[in-house]
Design goal:
The chain is mainly alpha-helical. The chain is built from 22 helices and no strands. α1 packs antiparallel against α2. The longest helix has 14 residues. The protein is flat and about 80 Å long.
């Protein structure tokens, strides 16, 4: 026992070699020590020796099989993406403990990962009979049908769930299907029933806005977004970008700028808001202000390829700061080496620097990518 304790202590200190020595000594004293085999398996994982870990786990299972050990082994195989072996572990558990929910859910997940949809649905039906929340099983089954392109079967299941009570996830999924099937009136009716406290409320709001825009009801979309923002019903910073872009489309640019400034005041550390504001300013031919916003993006996210590219290209256009512009574009290109837009920017900078051969080479590369 003392060697096992020492082994555990060494493993906690990340001293793998000493820990392994202690556990092997424990095995010499007791070749059937379950804990020595188990700890050696875990040590092998720490040492990234997965094949040896599998050997130790197999021996541990042979010495004293248990549900908890089998669950751990299933998780181990899952980390290796050996889903057939994961399935085997869960089936072993269920052969002895058919009501073990962890094993049942794990088995279903492993079947899904192996694309064994029919078997997964069969297991889901078994689980549904003993579940205290069958609606969640139906929602999961509907997701499986959607993955297989069986939209009608998914819709039927979701209709059943929705008819039985308030299930925001099912309501939202059904609304998405109806939207895709062009049944937008019913989709809107469903979306409007999703409670403001639901995790699916903001998703439902975006879909409602999208439906209004598809129907060219931009002012209604603006009203809906503003109502939610003013009441605090939705808190996604991206709503500011969406509302601002709608104002621009309605030729109300200043209101667009104002709403973005308001969003940044509320979420000053949100790089996406600064980036979108920069693009909005660019559309209004306010490039100096746009560059300021892009520089703020880089303060928050130094490896933001698009912001680096924007600043570099803008400076090249103005024929200023060319050395730093080149540094920015080279950084962006390391982040996205296949981007035709960044290659084009690089070619333009070389052109401005008078390095015409390099400029031609990069612009030709850009044309190939685009």
């Amino acid at each position: 026992i003392s060697r096992l304790r020492l082994g555990v202590l060494f493993s906690q200190q990340n001293n793998i070699s000493e820990a392994e020595k202690m556990f092997r000594q424990a095995l010499e004293l007791n070749p059937q020590s379950l804990f020595a085999h188990l700890y050696l398996a875990r040590l092998a994982i720490q040492a990234d020796d997965m094949d040896q870990a599998e050997v130790w786990y197999s021996k541990a299972l042979a010495i004293n099989w248990s549900v908890e050990l089998s669950l751990e082994v299933a998780e181990f195989y899952g980390s290796r993406k050996e889903y057939a072996k994961v399935e085997h572990q869960y089936r072993e558990i269920m052969s002895q403990y058919p009501d073990d929910t962890r094993a049942s859910l794990g088995l279903i997940h492993s079947l899904v990962l192996q694309n064994k949809k029919t078997e997964a649905i069969t297991e889901l039906q078994h689980l549904r009979k003993k579940s205290s929340d069958p609606s969640q099983i139906d929602i999961f089954t509907a997701r499986l049908h959607l993955r297989s392109g069986e939209t009608e079967k998914a819709a039927q299941l979701l209709e059943s769930v929705v008819s039985q009570g308030d299930e925001p996830e099912a309501i939202y999924m059904l609304a998405v299907i109806l939207y895709q099937e062009k049944e937008v009136v019913r989709a809107m009716e469903l979306l409007e029933t999703i409670n403001q406290q639901s995790d699916y409320y903001e998703d439902s709001l975006y879909l409602r806005v999208r439906i209004l825009l598809d129907r060219n009801k931009k002012m209604e979309a603006v009203t809906l977004i503003k109502k939610n923002m003013n009441s605090g019903m939705a808190s996604d910073p991206d709503l500011y970008s969406l509302l601002a872009s709608l104002y621009v489309e309605l030729n109300r640019e200043q209101e667009g700028y104002d709403i973005m400034a308001s969003g940044i005041e509320q979420y000053p550390e949100n790089p996406n808001l600064h980036y979108e504001y920069g693009l909005l300013l660019e559309r209004g031919d306010r490039q100096e202000e746009a560059v300021v916003q892009m520089q703020k993006v880089l303060e928050l996210v130094p490896d933001h390829a698009e912001a680096l590219n924007y600043i570099g290209y803008t400076w090249a256009n103005k024929n200023i700061n060319l050395k730093q512009a080149l540094e920015y574009i080279e950084r962006a290109l390391k982040l996205k080496p296949e981007s035709g837009y960044i290659l084009d920017s690089l070619g333009w900078i070389y052109f401005r620097m008078g390095e015409l051969e390099k400029a031609e080479r990069e612009i030709l590369k850009a044309l190939e990518q685009n």
